[in-house]
Amino acid sequence: MLKKIFNKYTLLSIVLVAMVGCTTTSTKKGTVGIKREQLLIVSAKEMNKGASLAYQEVLKEAKKNKKLNTNNKLVKRVRYIANRIIPHTVVFRSDAPRWDWEVNVLESDQLNAWCMPGGKIAFYTGIINKLKLTDAEIAAIMGHEMAHALREHGRERASEQTLTQAGLSTIAVLTGAKAQTMDLASLAVNVTLRLPNSRTHEVEADRMGVELAARAGFDPYAAVSVWQKMEKRSKGKNPPEILSTHPSHKNRIKDLKKYSKRVEHLYIATKTKS
Ligand SMILES: [Zn+2]
Known about the structure:
mainly alpha; binds zinc ion; single chain
């Protein structure tokens, strides 16, 4: 009984500490001015470990099916774009350029791309080929996906889920049921590949994305044409898979135009420098 009471209060205090003390923000504002407190109770280290495991699983599976990096030229192109952007992640967080970034291309008809916590990126051949993406458009998607990782949206959503789970666990302890432990690898998959991002997360990723692309020397307005292409596709029989995790909104293109304009001088500066 004592043990049960201890567990009950331990869990309750974890929940309370989490609710009171963990509104942290690890990113800087950038030119686009990203500023919002976040609830981050899952440790970054554990989250990234889970994501890394999940990513290795995705790569292993793709390799087994001969779907991993099948087109050398395309892999080089996508990695070149990523490598141009990565140094500029420092604008949002000083540790990011030293992250263990990984970029791979998966052979698939899907119109999809994602970045798991910690910088584990996948681009599907479908999105590049079917939307006939230019380098600047790939950079726009890349910047957006990187922003989700920089801003730790996955960790934030995992934290929200853990809180719910902790609440459930408290009830479980009270009722004598066994508390469940969270599996961070499957959580990483869920928050990256399955669950839709919130509107708030999408807006932040859009704005950070255009700044990253602009600073890396890619026309930030390419983000506008990407979503215009996506919008056209979304009306068809097979809407882009990326829309299931990146809900599109009427105001998105308007906001992207506004923020592309705001960072345009950064793009122009890269052209006059060279
Ligand atoms: Zn997104």
